[in-house]
Design brief:
Blueprint: H1 6-20, H2 47-50, E1 54-56, E2 66-73, E3 76-83, E4 90-95, H3 97-135
Antiparallel strand pairs: 1-2, 2-3, 3-4
Helix pairs in contact: 1-3
Length: 139
């Protein structure tokens, strides 16, 4: 029997965690009691909603999750980008309201794309490692 590469074991463990997805994690915020609405809420934030507009990146660990939040200072908007809950933000701006919202949406979209790409790559490596272990008689 040969020893397996520790990297293969680590990748397989990470891939299994990622495969469990978001359903395993507890929600980050308690659910807000829903109030009946007469009118539909617009998909894009309005001028008053841009301040505080926020999105979080994907991932199984809150300690390394990216978050982008728009804040307003006078007539200008800034985006604070943080990693985890207690990090010092990297500030982008000043920019217009629309540019700040677009910036947040674009960064979140790119982070999600890269996360899915990494997840797919890791799953492929874990599957390949499993095949190699099967071929060598290890399980």
């Amino acid at each position: 029997m040969t020893q397996s590469d520790p990297t293969d074991d680590a990748l397989a463990t990470i891939a299994s965690i990622l495969d469990q997805g978001e359903s395993v994690r507890a929600p980050e915020k308690p659910p807000i009691e829903e109030k009946p609405q007469v009118d539909e809420k617009p998909l894009a934030p309005t001028l008053t909603e841009a301040d505080g507009y926020s999105k979080s990146g994907p991932g199984p660990m809150a300690a390394i999750r990216l978050k982008w939040t728009v804040r307003r200072e006078g007539s200008e908007y800034y985006v604070d980008e943080t990693i985890g809950e207690n990090s010092t933000p990297v500030v982008s701006g000043p920019m217009s309201r629309d540019a700040a919202v677009w910036f947040v949406d674009d960064r979140e979209s790119e982070a999600r794309r890269r996360f899915e790409e990494l997840k797919s790559e890791m799953s492929g490596r874990a599957a390949a490692a499993h095949i190699v272990r099967k071929d060598s008689g290890e399980i």
